[in-house]
Amino acid sequence: MKMYYIILYAISLLMVGVYSALWRKRFPVFISLLFSLIPIANFGYLMVHNATTLSEAILGIKITYLGGCYLNLFLMLTILSLCKINTKKWVQLLFMFFSTVIFVCSLTIGSSKIFYRNITANMVNGQLVIHKQYGPIHTLYYIQIFIYLLISVGGIIQAFRKKNEASRNNLFLLLGCDFYIILMFFGSKFVGLSIEFTPLMYVLCEFFFFAIIIRIALYDIPEIAVEKLVRVSKTGYASFDGKFNYLGSNDAAKEVFPQLNDLRVDKSALTNAEITNEIISRLKDFESNATFNTFYKEKDEKIYKINIERLSDKQKSRGFILFIRDDTTEQKYIALLNKVEQHTFENPL
Fold first, then answer.
1. Sheet bearing 302-313, strands edge to edge
2. Nearest 5°: CA angle at 13, between 8 and 14?
3. What angle do CA 86, 155, 221 make, to 5 degrees?
4. What is the reported pLDDT for 83?
5. Distance between CA 304 and CA 257 in Å, rounded?
6. According to the model, what pLDDT value does residue 339 have?
7. Of 40, 143, 187, 296, whose CB is crowded by the most CB atoms within 10 A?
8. Which residues in the chain come in under a pLDDT of 50?
């Protein structure tokens, strides 16, 4: 059984290294906190299993509650972020305060009866067996978990119904992750096995999030694009993967191509006739001949220049990105020069 906890702890440490290699600026900060905290929580479970005295076990239990109090919070905030649901700073701080109060109460285990009424241990076949009696604050701990899970599921359902910009693939992964957590957490309580399923739950959740962050990395605008958007704040962008599935766009792009508002992330743009005619046809031309990387669109007495570039990840082509900017002044200047040139040609001195 010891190897079970060692392997899960080692995997969670390895996951941190892999996540660091995949990290992008656009990843929600709470995902980083999740991956950072899981190895600490799993180390706590390893400590509890290896404990030979009650004091060692209590120290390990306190470390596990660091994960229990904060990981569910970070999971909820990550889910809301990926569902494109903005939570105000004061709301996040309120949740953080609530979780911190519960965690501080857990630190009283062994010295107070507010979290554990009583905790004892005895050795059975060389293994320390712990007996717990929960206190009143521990009930709040369960309520906290239930509230965070309820908000998470509600956020996912809301995103399914109303958030076109939230990836359906990611939403299904998040829903699966939440369902799995509920099943594992409450299932382990009723089955009553001596093995602790929580560290396994944490590690498997990391695999769910790896599938999600790989998609987020695909949505990520390349560094060159970020620099351009910073320099020219009114630059619009829209991106599509290699199969012409819509990946996302900003408000400036939607002003020029309003039909982008009708597209859902991760769904084929080919289902929209106007987008297919105005954009996808251009992407296909660019795909067959890279010199066809620029086209223009006139809208509301303005002329927009659209540049097409490859959407790449570490030299591998993932799709296409369009940069859209107002080119009216330049095009009018060119038109004026052409008129002057034509007039000069027709009326030589």
1. 246-249, 236-241, 316-326, 302-313, 294-299
2. 95
3. 55
4. 83
5. 11
6. 60
7. 40
8. 223-224, 230
Q: What is the pLDDT of residues 121-155, one digit of tens each?
A: 888 887 888 888 999 999 999 899 889 989 988 88
CA–CA distance, 141 with 245 (Å, rounded to integer): 42
Question: Token digits for 53?
Answer: 């005295």
| Cβ atoms within 10 Å of 134's Cβ, excluding its own | 14
pLDDT at 37: 93
How far from 253 is each of 29, 225, 260, 305, 324, CA to CA, in Å? 26, 14, 8, 11, 7
According to the model, what pLDDT value does residue 121 have?
86
Is 156:178 a contact under the CB 8 Å cutoff? yes
**Partners of 131 in the beta sheet?**
120
Identify the pLDDT of residue 175. 77
Torsion angle, alpha carbons of 23, 26, 30, 36, to 10: 10
Calpha distance 115→103 (Å, rounded): 10
- Residue for token digits 């944490």? 202
Which helix (DSSP H) or strand (DSSP E) does residue 46 occupy? helix 29-50
